[in-house]
Write a structure and sequence with these properties.
18 helices; alpha+beta; twelve-stranded mixed β-sheet; rod-shaped; 500 residues
């Protein structure tokens, strides 16, 4: 009863072997599909939600007021806090400096008092479209002049061109006038770029407050740090790279955003002896609220997917049980022949175990990959394609674990009927059977299971929001959404078996 017997057995019963293989494949692939599809759809939906959200909600603004001499120190504090808090998450970071206000003495007759602020923005040349001139070059520290770039709308308002010089005066007489040269005129382009989200004054070409109108002039950072002795407003624009965010990073990212301001203040307190050298950090973002809502949506999505797949897996398991029972009945004559030649129940069970392992192990290893390939077809032609949601299903550790657990259950389902039939045949030699009802049915176990299903459903429905929230936070799924449909399916199956 070795490999030769096994191969002959499979070859002689080709149709039954095909049915068993098909059923095992469906069972294992369905079990592997749940984690893969749930993760792929959830991740695709999360990234789509972040892409579609306003830029102000997907970016983080960190601001502080300090002297030019301390900018490098606070910049180091921010870099360390961000690297520590968002470890493992790819982030983009851009710094902007804003000077104090300057007057435009040549425009003193305007209806509103017109002011100028100098802005230095990292990467401005990458997001703005240059209309005329060249981007400003750093000024010499000893000079009292500087090159600036201005928005084309501001250039029209002030009636200036590239090469014109403008004299501006500080609103507080801390230093003398500053002569600036218009080196470039630019245009705001592609407002969908998130890097514009926290540059409102540049997007709108100025701002109006009370009786003041303020124009932003873009200058090199060296100008603000070397030429201006007064305090600067320093802001960092942080944003996670959406394409790099994984599903298990959403919760940690939200917690990092919530705790970032505390980390910044603590880091600044450790580095600065004189608290008056810099103000407290201020963090402005809607990212934590956005991520919180995204997590809730993902919980519902994952629960719905797992619930459907769980029901399909139960049906596949039920089909596997029927296939196994039919296989035992079909091979009854073969089993009787083997018993007549001295085969014991243990021998028949070992043969069935080897057959089950030969069928199950290769399919168990291939199931996650087969599931991901099948889901890629759904991504191209399924309902998700019609709504523009693209997913990238890949085998996951959980899908492989589900395949292994399903494989072990499959082996048990295939072997158990053989063991039970062999023992019953050995026990019933010369004995007339009086009942075709199973012992579990005679004992009322199936009825007890139906009652137990009702009790479990009732307990799940009365857990309360606090308890279910804890479970969702730990496992990412809602237990009621998953278990309730499966309980109903299981109950119906038990009742159908009792009626039969």
């Amino acid at each position: 009863m070795g490999a030769v017997v096994l191969l002959k057995r499979l070859a002689s019963d080709g149709l039954m072997s095909v049915a068993m293989i098909t059923t095992v494949v469906m069972t294992l692939v369905l079990l592997s599909t749940g984690p893969i599809y749930a993760d792929a759809v959830s991740l695709g939906a999360a990234r789509t939600a972040l892409h579609d959200a306003p830029g102000i909600d997907t970016t983080i603004g960190v601001s502080v007021r300090t002297s030019p001499a301390e900018v490098a120190l606070v910049d180091e504090v921010v870099t360390r806090a961000v690297d520590s808090r968002f470890a493992g998450i790819e982030m983009t970071e851009a710094r902007s400096l804003t000077s104090a206000s300057f007057r435009l003495p040549e425009r003193a007759t305007a209806e509103l008092d017109e002011l100028v602020v100098l802005r230095a923005v990292d990467g401005i040349a990458d997001i703005a479209q240059l209309v005329e001139g060249t981007w400003p070059a750093p000024a010499e520290p000893a000079s009292l002049g500087a090159q600036v770039a201005i928005d084309e709308r501001i250039a029209d308002e002030l009636d200036v061109e590239v090469g014109d010089r403008i004299q501006i005066e500080p609103t507080r007489p801390a230093r003398g006038p500053l002569t600036i040269e218009v080196a470039a005129i630019y245009r705001v382009a592609d407002l969908s770029d998130r890097r514009w989200a926290r540059l409102d004054d540049l997007v709108s070409a100025g701002s109006v407050s009370n009786r003041f109108r303020t124009f932003p002039f873009v200058a090199p950072g060296e100008v603000l740090l070397d030429l201006l002795a007064r305090r600067l407003d320093v802001e960092w624009h942080l944003a996670p790279v959406i394409e790099s965010i994984e599903l298990d990073q959403l919760a940690s990212t939200r917690r990092s955003v919530v705790n970032l301001e505390r980390d910044l203040d603590e880091g600044l307190a450790r580095r600065v002896d004189d608290p008056s050298m810099a103000s407290e950090f201020r963090v402005d973002t809607g990212l934590s609220s956005l991520l919180s809502g995204t997590e809730r949506s993902i919980t519902v999505t994952r629960s719905s997917v797992f619930g459907v797949v769980f029901q399909l897996a139960l049906l596949a398991g039920y089909a596997l049980m029927l296939t196994s029972a039919v296989a035992v009945e079909t091979r009854g004559r073969e089993a009787a022949l083997l018993r007549s030649r001295g085969a014991r129940p243990r021998d028949l069970t070992l043969l069935a175990l080897i057959e089950a392992l030969v069928l199950t192990i290769p399919l168990m290893l291939a199931a996650p990959e087969l599931a991901s390939r099948a889901l890629r077809l759904v991504d191209d032609v399924g309902p998700l394609a019609s709504i523009g949601l693209r997913v990238a299903p890949e085998p996951t550790a959980l899908s492989r674990l589900a395949a292994v657990v399903g494989g072990a259950i499959t082996v048990g389902v295939l072997v158990f009927p053989v063991l039970r039939g062999a023992r019953r045949a050995e026990r019933d030699v010369g004995v007339t059977r009086e009942s075709t009802t199973s012992a579990s049915q005679r004992a009322g176990v199936d009825v007890a299971l139906v009652v137990l299903c009702g009790v479990v459903y009732w307990q799940l429905s009365t857990l309360g929001d606090d308890r279910t929230a804890t479970i969702r936070g730990r496992f990412g799924v809602d237990p009621l959404l998953i278990v309730a449909p499966a309980l109903g399916l299981f109950t119906g199956a038990v009742i159908a078996l009792r009626a039969a």
